[in-house]
Amino acid sequence: MQRAIRLITVLTTLAGLLAESPSCQPEDGGGGSSDKGNQSLDCTIFRPSAPFEVDGPNPDGANFYWFTSRAEGDVSCTGKMAQIGVTVVFHHSTNGQQGALTGATRICNDKAECTGRADYRRQRLYCREVYHYDDYAQATAWFKATATSPQATIRSKEGRHRTGTSYNPPEGGCR
Fold first, then answer.
1. Is 8 part of a structural domain of the chain?
2. Rounded to a whole number, what is the distance in angstroms from the first to the last CA of the chain?
3. pLDDT tens for residues 118-165?
4. For the residues of the chain, what is the DSSP string, one character each?
5. Within a domain: 98
6. Is 63 a domain residue?
């Protein structure tokens, strides 16, 4: 019985010592790492923008027109990162036909913020047809806190939908 009490005392003492010891913290890297100022380095994606028109409508031959829409995705970090990469995927639907277009990955070096974008051009739209569209963006990103740290992926986010219609725009040459 006395041997069991001693064993319990030893185990309790060890548990107390382990609970009091400081935890190890990585020296560099992403998400939860620390820099020289002991500030937690992390990044987040702000909700991507709803797509917006950047060009057009413009004539695209007799009785046709085109226009371009853009979606943007922003990443903000708690400090300057060695690299941030942002990719925006533009999801589009025109009269029920769906698709997606991936913008080029934007790489920002030695920055705390980075913005990526994707442009989608609707073309050869017939002037006398009504087009219904429903578009939204999805942003994905990664960062490296230092040049030698591993790349950390940031969870992707979707933006708000932009819905609308297009029909016979005079700016597109339609009469």
1. no
2. 100
3. 999 999 999 999 999 999 999 999 999 999 999 999 999 999 999 999
4. -HHHHHHHHHHHHHHHHHHHSPPP--SS-SSSEE-TT-PEE-EEEPPPPPPEEEEEEEE-STTEEEEEEEEEEEEEEEEEEEEEEEEEEEEEEETTEEEEEEPPPEEEEEEEEEEEEEEEEEEEEETTS-EEEEEEEEEEEEEESSTTSPPEEEEEEE---EEEEE---GGGT--
5. yes
6. yes
User: How is residue 3 written in tokens?
Assistant: 């041997």
CATH number at residue 137: 2.60.40
Task: Work out how many domains the chain is built from and give that number.
Answer: 1
* Cα atoms in the 13 Å half-sphere on the side-chain side of 112: 6
